[in-house]
Design a protein that fits this description.
- This protein is α/β, with parallel strands linked by helices and 658 residues long.
- Among the domains are: 170 residues, Rossmann fold, CATH 3.40.50.300; 88 residues, Helix Hairpins (Orthogonal Bundle), CATH 1.10.287.1770.
- Helices cover 64% and strands 9% of the residues.
- Strands 1, 2, 3, 4, 5, 6, 7, 9 and 10 form a 9-stranded mixed beta sheet that branches.
- A hairpin with a 2-residue loop joins strand 4 and strand 5.
- The longest helix is centred in the middle third of the chain and has 48 residues.
């Protein structure tokens, strides 16, 4: 193999903006926030559910568009996030591409650096988290790294706002590195032959040729748009011929060579220094992932989360918003004003009736769900900024593996205890469509929202503790069973669980607030319109007498299969409109003495597993598509009744509560 070489080309043409690229958990979002401020736009990348953050930076009197791409480990995509980041670099021309690197994990980052260099993009390297590297006894020779690649290298500590001025200056003067890895002659020959068929683009022909040789199938659409079919066939023939002649897979050979280069490079730029004594954060980081002490710490965090979100958010704040702000002020004022100025009865009912946009949709979305999601977002941001969130995912990884998932699934599942509608939205963080569908199914099936959970726990307060345990055991068993089966039925591959564990650190108040406010804005834009749409459908259904008809048709099933009184039918129908209303209907039946302990358990298991509320259904349609939403609904509804019926007969047969 030939010797690797390098030189540098100055970037003279000015493109529209700058792009932030990096591995997950390297502080890209913090850098983005410091460059742009909090007024940013979050939108889906076209044709995907992957979110891209855009903002503006004002540098030396000029305004530049900044794009924050999803965290990636490679630009040969293995996930939708990686494909989106690669496509952004492929399709857009940037003044500079800033690679944000976690200084204490620079070897992992250098593999990505090599791919960016091969793409020929105007590059700036930002060594972020330098303080954490020093605390671990790691020293990086910046001048040596700059010499190797011939690009600007700066150091930052984003959480302390250090080094940002230097980064801004460097981002305005990027360079295109001409550092070159020379692969095996057979691979080099194939690269040269494939390059001849490729058009000019925003990344080099060489990098695209290496992607093709590595077996990157995600390039197919781009190739079909930009290269004639006959030339694509010729490139594939070149790749296949090279693969037949090479002793190992071409993708593996290319990756292996890059790894060798990284190891050699790391030996040149890295050195150990005396880091002194361990700090509190280091000890805390060890405790949170310890096989023994990590579990009590996990339960402590979950208890704090329950107290803050479940008790304070879902209890104190919801009571204040619903009873005081909406109950005593907003709704009465709205009713008086609308009654005064709108003479048409139908329009008045549409706005302030039982299924009114103000009295139901906005009251539910703002007074009930918003306090829960806001407190959850605060807690979520604290866990994220402190570095505990990746540890939580790591701790629960084994549990989710049995369901074809990994530890990342814990995040939307925990959020589901606040609001399943919002939790369905956050399944976007998962790597594959298969994982997103499985978690969406489990959320719709067996995760009660906090409003419903509060009513359910209230009902069990009047029952033996064994009733609560049976309800909980039934849900866990069903979730594990459905997850296990779904992992084997739903097509697609599971992505390996690779998660970098950052050090524990004190959360920054500004970071927590910026993230919380942006997520609340996200909720208001994404979820609230769905509550309004759902309420409009209910209003029409009520006026057409569809709801009473559904109650009459469903009653025999509720009575014969579940062993419940006919009056319980209304609770299940209303539960589709609002999950807590359904549970509240059962609570009222219990208070009237119409449900015994066995019926309480059966009804609550069934209504927890029952079809999700209408807002969640619309969110499933929006995120997963109509076909998937119909399949999930068609499964969940009869399955909930089936489980309830089986449980009814088991409890009767064994006379559990007699």
């Amino acid at each position: 193999m030939s010797t690797d070489c390098h030189s540098t080309t100055e970037v003279k043409s000015k493109a529209a903006g700058m792009c932030l690229v990096g591995n997950p958990n390297v502080g890209k979002s913090a850098i983005f926030g410091l460059l742009t401020g909090r007024y940013v736009v979050v939108s889906n990348y076209p044709g995907t559910t992957v979110e891209i953050t855009n903002g503006e930076a004002h540098l030396h009197g000029d305004t530049y568009q900044i794009v924050d791409t999803p965290g990636v480990n490679s630009l040969i995509p293995m996930s939708e996030d990686e494909k989106v980041t690669r496509d952004i670099l492929l399709e857009r021309d940037f003044l500079s591409v800033v690679q944000v690197i976690d200084s204490k994990n620079i070897k992992r980052a250098l593999s990505l650096t090599l791919q960016l260099v091969e793409m020929g993009v105007p590059l700036v390297i930002d060594l972020n988290m330098r303080d954490e590297a020093v605390n671990r006894g790691i020293h990086i020779e910046e001048e040596e790294l700059k010499e190797i690649f011939g690009v600007n290298v700066v150091s930052t500590i984003a959480v302390q706002k250090k080094g940002i001025s230097s980064l801004k200056d460097a981002a305005l003067a990027p360079k295109i590195s001409e550092y070159k890895i020379t692969y095996d002659p057979l691979i080099e020959k194939a690269v040269t032959e494939i390059e001849a068929f490729l058009p000019e683009s925003n990344i080099s022909r060489r990098s695209i040729a290496l992607m093709i040789l590595s077996g990157d199938r995600t390039l197919k659409d781009w190739l079909l748009k930009n290269v004639p079919d006959d030339q694509i066939m010729k490139m594939e023939a070149i790749r296949d011929e090279a693969a037949q002649q090479f002793p190992i897979a071409l993708g593996y050979a290319i990756s292996k060579k890059r790894h060798q280069v990284v190891e050699k490079m790391a030996g040149t730029i890295l050195s150990k220094i005396d880091s002194g004594k361990k700090g509190v954060s280091a000890y805390l980081g060890e405790i949170t992932t310890h096989p023994v002490w990590g579990t009590p710490f996990l339960f402590l965090v979950l208890y704090a989360l329950y107290e803050f979100v479940g008790v304070f958010g879902a209890g104190t704040m919801v009571d204040f918003f619903e009873s005081v702000i909406f109950g005593e002020y907003l709704n009465p004022w709205a009713e008086k004003i609308i009654t005064l100025i709108i003479p048409v009865e139908l329009i008045k009912e549409l706005l302030i009736g039982p299924y009114g946009i103000i009295t139901m949709a906005l009251t539910y979305a703002i007074a009930i769900i918003l306090p829960i999601t806001a407190t959850f977002f605060i807690a979520f941001s604290i866990m994220e900024d402190s570095g505990y969130l990746p540890r939580l995912a790591a701790m629960l990884n084994k549990i989710f593996q049995s369901m074809g998932l990994n530890g990342k699934a814990v995040l939307p599942m925990v959020l589901g205890l606040g609001c399943d509608t919002m939790a369905t939205l956050t399944t976007r963080i998962l790597d594959t469509r298969k994982e997103r569908v499985i978690v969406t199914l489990l959320l719709a099936l067996g995760v009660p929202c906090s409003a419903q959970l509060g009513v359910i726990l209230g009902m069990f307060g009047n029952q033996p503790f064994s009733a609560l345990l049976i309800w909980l055991a039934a849900l866990v068993l069903v979730m594990m069973l459905v997850g296990f089966m779904a992992a084997r039925i739903i097509p697609g591959q599971r992505v390996d669980f690779i998660l970098e564990l950052p050090p524990m650190r004190m959360p920054q108040f500004s970071n927590v607030m910026i993230k919380t406010l942006s997520r609340i804005e996200w909720y208001l834009k994404e979820a609230v319109p769905l509550f309004i749409l759902g309420t409009l459908i209910l209003f029409v259904a009520d006026k057409l007498n569809i709801l009473p008809w559904l109650q009459e048709v469903s009653s025999p099933v509720i009575v014969s299969l579940l062993g419940l009184p006919a009056e319980a039918t209304e609770a299940f129908i209303i539960g589709f409109l609002r999950r807590d209303f359904g549970a509240a209907g059962l609570f009222a039946l219990q208070e009237r003495g119409m449900l015994n302990t066995e019926q309480v358990v059966v009804s609550l298991v069934t209504i927890t597993l029952f079809i999700p509320c209408i807002a969640n259904l619309f969110m499933i349609i929006k995120e997963r598509g109509m076909k998937t939403a119909v399949i999930i609904s068609a499964f969940v509804f009869p399955f909930a009744i089936l489980v309830g019926g089986i449980l009814h007969r088991i409890l009767k047969w064994f006379k559990v509560f007699e």
